[in-house]
Design brief:
Length: 132
């Protein structure tokens, strides 16, 4: 698998539940942070886009949980991107370090709202790297 972007992170104590594993909702934070860091790395600012009337929003999110993370675990959050019509589809996987065991596999469909209407975004089309 060729990933476009990798981000290394570490589990914080407060992200874990009573079972001592990362609460499922925190994985959504991890993958969202990874998408935002990727966009920032290619020069895309959500704030600047919003000021121009363009909002990229999540339309659908699926996550398959494979192996839990625990407090102090380091992990690698990776993504690649495909275009499907007007959707930007992020394929995001998290791997525990150092053994690279798969933690979650996620697919995030995003769309753009341009001046209040569903539309395309030339800035994203020009700056993002898409896989076939």
């Amino acid at each position: 698998m060729k990933y476009t972007f990798d981000l290394k992170m570490k589990v914080r104590d407060y992200e874990c539940d009573l079972q001592g594993i990362v609460n499922n909702a925190n994985y959504q934070h991890y993958i969202e942070h990874t998408r935002h860091e990727y966009l920032h790395s290619v020069g895309i600012s959500f704030a600047a886009m919003h000021e121009r009337g363009i909002d990229a929003v999540v339309a659908r999110l699926t996550m398959a949980f494979k192996t839990p993370l625990r407090s102090g675990d380091e992990f690698l959050s990776r993504l690649y991107l495909k275009r499907d019509g007007i959707k930007y589809v992020f394929y995001q996987d998290i791997f525990r370090l150092p053994d690279m065991k798969c933690v979650i596999k996620a697919i995030v469909d995003t769309v753009c709202i341009v001046d209040g209407r569903l539309g395309t975004c030339d800035e994203l089309d020009q700056k993002l790297t898409f896989h076939e």
